[in-house]
Amino acid sequence: MSISKQDVIKKILPDTPNEGEFAEAFAPGNIALCKYWGKRNTELNLPINGSLSISLGTLGSRTSIAESETGKDQVYLKGELLDDKEPFVQRVIPFVNLFRKDLKQPVCIKTNNNLPTAAGLASSASGFAALMRAINDFYHLGLSRQNQSTFARMGSGSAARSIYRGFVEWYKGEREDGMDSYAEPYECTWQELRIGLLKVATDQKKISSSLGMQRTVNSSVLYRSWAQQADQDLAAIKRAISDHDLEQLGAIAEKNALSMHATMISAWPPLLYWTSDSIEALHRVWEMRELGIAVYLTMDAGPNLKLIFQGKDEEIIRDAFPELQELDIVAPFKGRIDNNPEPTDC
Ligand code: PMV
Known about the structure:
The protein is an alpha+beta fold and 346 residues long. It has helices at 5-10, 87-97, 124-138, 145-155, 209-219, 226-242, 246-265, 276-290, 314-320, and strands at 22-34, 39-41, 46-47, 51-67, 74-77, 80-81, 107-113, 167-170, 183-185, 193-199, 296-299, 305-310, 326-330. Strands 1, 4, 5, 6, 7, 8 and 9 form a seven-stranded mixed beta sheet that branches. A four-stranded antiparallel beta sheet has the order 11-12-10-13. It has a two-stranded antiparallel sheet with strand order 2-3. Helix 3 crosses helix 4. The chain is globular and about 60 Å long. The structure holds (3R)-3-hydroxy-3-methyl-5-(phosphonooxy)pentanoic acid. Residues 32, 35-36, 51, 122, 124-125, 156-158, 209-210, 300-301 line the site of (3R)-3-hydroxy-3-methyl-5-(phosphonooxy)pentanoic acid.
């Protein structure tokens, strides 16, 4: 029989009762430079391959937990009280239940995020990481960062990486219970690095990343070579980060993302998250490179592009995408974030 989330968490939680009064935590969003694509265990969100991301500095989710005054659980998203039947509530409350043992103290959860909604970025990574950190404080669980990452992963795979700022590696692990599949910072700063969040479309995606992964794993011939390729990309990306080599980092991250999309296109039924605007933007990035500007792209399970470049090219890149799309530029290593240790220099 397969192991449940509850079985795994139960072994680590302290025995003492755990009622709380108030806690609040922040976690950044993150963009994978080497993608997580494919699960070896769908219940625990255990990945087939390791991945590496860059956290989005001060952009992310802030979540608070307080005792509910209405006698029932409540979830607010961006100031709005959600109905119990909302899919968001149906994901959040079962996650909290994993940690509140048999105590029946109703809670009021409020979550906000400052990720540019226009960029269509998934907020589940920062959302579950912030929730995990708030749960840890609220119930006085005293979980290590490693365990917080391990458990945030059970809410949303990529949330494992949002527990940290800077570059973050998520180990695929080997164990059946997933206790060796957590993220850790890849200790290295890069002040000049910029991530551009390029809005192409804001529509809700029709196929979630979880469903997309399963379909790809089950039916794509190209997926057979993915895990091995991702392992090589991960190692090469770490070298490029240590060397502050943007050309290498950008080239590998772009190839990695496009290979991931190739596995989706070759799935059955085929899966393509791009729109014609995505393709136009993609060509524009390639044209800029032909003109000698070091700008690279990555894409996730949606139509939007994320650009990778350096601060000195910010103006040129802003000018290159004047109409249609909106561009938000993030300097991942600028600005301090509460409770997050600063990454050290390489
Ligand atoms: O964490 P999920 O289940 O939303 O999956 C994220 C998948 C990608 O964004 C496509 C890749 C990644 O590593 O973030």
